[in-house]
């Protein structure tokens, strides 16, 4: 577990990943955190209405203040729709599911998604997360985060930050400017992701997901379409 300053946010992000009320015991097990410590942080989050509790079941869930923040984010997103338009263009051209992912704590978080119209498609939802070490989106985000942030992620997932193979993988992803994964997080799914960097700041990553069978046919063109769109976004003001 990370330092004290991180723990409140780790708890909040973990509760958000469940998508439904959860018992404190389950949360304690998943985070490997003692119940006594966990209750102390939960109390703080409840005071700020970031978490709330069902008095009958004693389960906790995302609170009204968190929902207010999410609502404000949705309004801001509508005002700045360039990413949404980019995903629409990509989905129309490639026919595949496209997402915009951002690093959130120790996870990659989907903030925008445009699903494929194909009968056989890869599904992803706004608000869905995945570990910041698995999948094309996560790897391309992690590779472009500051070293100190990478160290925290490595420690959180029990990885050796100084492992030569791991460091070489991060360096290669940065040099390539994209990441490809096959069945890395979801079986039978190919993902390609490109970082969006403006003024040396990592804004997020745009990602295309496709069933591996369909990805075998002409996916090089899909990669080029993704790179072109990313280039436009990176140059946006």
UniProtKB/TrEMBL annotation:
UniProt cross-references to Pfam families, sorted A to Z: IclR_C
InterPro entries for the chain: GAF-like_dom_sf (IPR029016), HTH_MetabolicPath_Reg (IPR050707), Tscrpt_reg_IclR_C (IPR014757), WH-like_DNA-bd_sf (IPR036388), WH_DNA-bd_sf (IPR036390)
Keywords, in A-Z order: Transcription, Transcription regulation
Domain IclR-ED, chain residue ranges per copy: 65-237
Keyword Transit peptide: no
Transcription regulation among keywords: yes
UniProt protein name: IclR family transcriptional regulator C-terminal domain-containing protein
């Amino acid at each position: 577990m990370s330092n004290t300053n991180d723990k409140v946010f780790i708890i909040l992000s973990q509760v958000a990943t469940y998508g439904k009320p959860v018992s404190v015991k389950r949360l304690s097990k998943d985070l490997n955190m003692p119940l006594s410590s966990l209750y102390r942080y939960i109390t703080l989050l409840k005071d700020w209405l970031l978490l709330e509790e069902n008095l009958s079941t004693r389960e906790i869930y995302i609170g009204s203040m968190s929902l207010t923040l999410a609502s404000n984010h949705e309004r801001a997103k509508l005002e700045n729709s360039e990413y949404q338009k980019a995903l629409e263009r990509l989905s129309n051209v490639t026919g595949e599911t496209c997402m915009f992912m951002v690093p959130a704590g120790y996870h990659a978080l989907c903030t925008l998604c445009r699903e494929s119209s194909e009968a056989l498609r890869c599904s992803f939802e706004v608000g869905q997360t995945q570990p910041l070490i698995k999948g094309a989106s996560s790897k391309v985000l992690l590779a472009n985060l500051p070293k100190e942030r990478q160290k925290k992620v490595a420690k959180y997932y029990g990885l050796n930050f100084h492992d030569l193979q791991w460091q070489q993988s991060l360096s290669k992803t940065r040099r390539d400017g994209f990441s490809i994964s096959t069945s890395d997080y979801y079986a039978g799914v190919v993902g390609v992701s490109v970082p969006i960097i403006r003024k040396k700041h990592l804004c997020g990553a745009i990602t295309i997901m496709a069933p591996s069978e369909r990805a075998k046919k002409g996916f090089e063109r899909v990669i080029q379409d993704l790179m072109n769109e990313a280039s436009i976004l990176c140059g946006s003001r």
